[in-house]
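Hey, I'm writing a tutorial for new members on how sequence and structure tokens pair up, and I'd like a real worked example in the thread rather than a made-up one. If someone can provide the structure for the chain below, I'll link this post from the tutorial.
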Amino acid sequence: MKVFLIEDDHTLSQNISEALKGEALNVEVCYDGLLAERMLRKDTFDCIIMDINLPGKNGFDLCKDFRQHNTITPVIMLTAFGELEDKVQGFDCGADDYLTKPFYMRELIMRVNALIKRHKFNSSATANNSILIVDDITLNDAQKKVFRQGTEITLTPREYQILFKLMENKGEIISKADLIKEIWGSSFDANTNTIEVYVNFLRNKLDKPFGKNTIKTKVGYGYYLDVR
């Protein structure tokens, strides 16, 4: 397994690198956002760890641009900030997990291993070029594209994952906690309103322009797609 570490603090970078190598992981290290961007385009990795405050190009922009051509490889963001707004911005840019400095190295290793395992499972599960259809919505998981009434809808990675989960379980109620655990992992605080924000984003793109009300809320239970 190959991990790409993007961290401009040389001491921290060395400590993380040694810890990951101790887990039999191969580690590629980079200290600059612009250089990392070039490396991400020419090489493939099983997991990416990136700091937010990077020289050349910050982690938010780096992750967002990376997601334009890769929506699969898991990304963990490291930051000195712990505010919810920073976490939301990180997830909105396409990050899969978020760790605030200082952190226990063992926790980082656990999260890396969990994301790699999930990535391998998802890659295997989507190898069949699955297409999901609910009402007039079509989701092509191989191409990561969504259409409604023949019109392509551009979604962020998080919006896409929420829709995929709802379409995969069409008509069934999915709890907020289950959505958060599935998409952000068990480390994310399920008491935040982040999931409501993203569901609202999704409704604005998927329902409102088409005069539909497909994504429903069952108060106290969760969300489901009205397939009647």
